[in-house]
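G., the chain you wanted modeled:
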Amino acid sequence: MIEILKRETIYFWYYFSIQLEQIVWYWILGMALGSLVSVFGKEKIHDLFVKMRNTKMGVFGVVPASLLGIASPLCMYGTIPIAASFAGKGMAEDWIAAFVMSSILLNPQLFFYSAALGVPALVIRFASCFFCGALAGIFVRLFFRNKPFFTFKQFANMASRDTDPNPVLRFLKNFGRNVKATALYFLAGIVLSALFQRYVPPEAFGKLFGGNKGFGVLMAATVGVPLYVCGGGTIPLLQQWLASGMTMGSAASFMITGPATKITNLGAVKIVLGIKHYVFYLLFVVLFALSSGLIIDYLLGIT
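Predicted structure as C-alpha cells:
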C-alpha cells in the first residue's frame, strides 16, 4: 500500500509540475497586465463610457459598451456600483446591459491568462463574450425599452482601493490583491488538471465532449454551472480538456455559462434585476451558450 501511494505521488507530482511550468507564467502575466489596466486605465475606460451618453449611436452603442465592459478590470461587485453610477448619469439601459454582461464574462486579467489556451481559443473567447454582451443590450432595448430593467437602489458607487500616491506602490498593491484573490483557485485548477491527466482516459473524455452532435456542447454548458468558481482556476482544466478532445464550441459554451452563473456573480445580478428579470437573464445565458457552441462547432466542421 505504501509503495502504491509513493508511486501515485510521484506520478501526480510529475503531472502537476509539468502543468504548473506550462501555465504559471500566463497567470503571472495576466495578473500583472490586469493590474496595469486597473491602476492606470480604469478611470479612463469608465469616463469614455460616460462620454458616449451624448452621442447618437442608438442601438449601435451596444458595440462600444460591450467592448468597454470587457476592458473594465472590476469584479462583479465593483461593476454593479459603476453601472449604478452610469444609470444615475442618464446612460441608456441597453448600453448598461451590454457593459455589465460582457464585464461578467471577461476582464483584462482573464483575457491575458486565457492566452494559455492558444490563439484560436483566445479569439473565440473574446468574440463570444463580446457578442453575448452586445446581444444582451439589444434584447433589453427591444423588450424593455419603455420600462426599467435594472434596479440599482441598493448600490452606491464604491471608493477605489487604488489610492496610494506612489504609482509603483499602487500597482504592486493591486497586483498583490489579484494574486491573493486567485492563487488558491489557480493551484486548485492545477491539482484538478493533474488528477485529470492521471486518472481520466483521454478517449473517454473525447467521446463525451468531442463531436457528439451537440451533446458535448450541452454537457459543457451544464458542467460550467457547478464547476466554475474562478476564471483563473478553470484555465488549466480547459487546457487539458481541449487537448483531450473537447471541441472549441464546447469550450466556448463552458466559458459563457461558467462566469455568468458563478455563485457570487448571480448574487449581485439578482439584487439589481429582481426575480422576473433574473429568470430572463439565466435563460438568455443558457440559450446563448448553447447556440454559440453549436455555431462554432458547425463553422469548424464539427457536426
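Residues 2-299 form one domain.

Shout if anything looks off.
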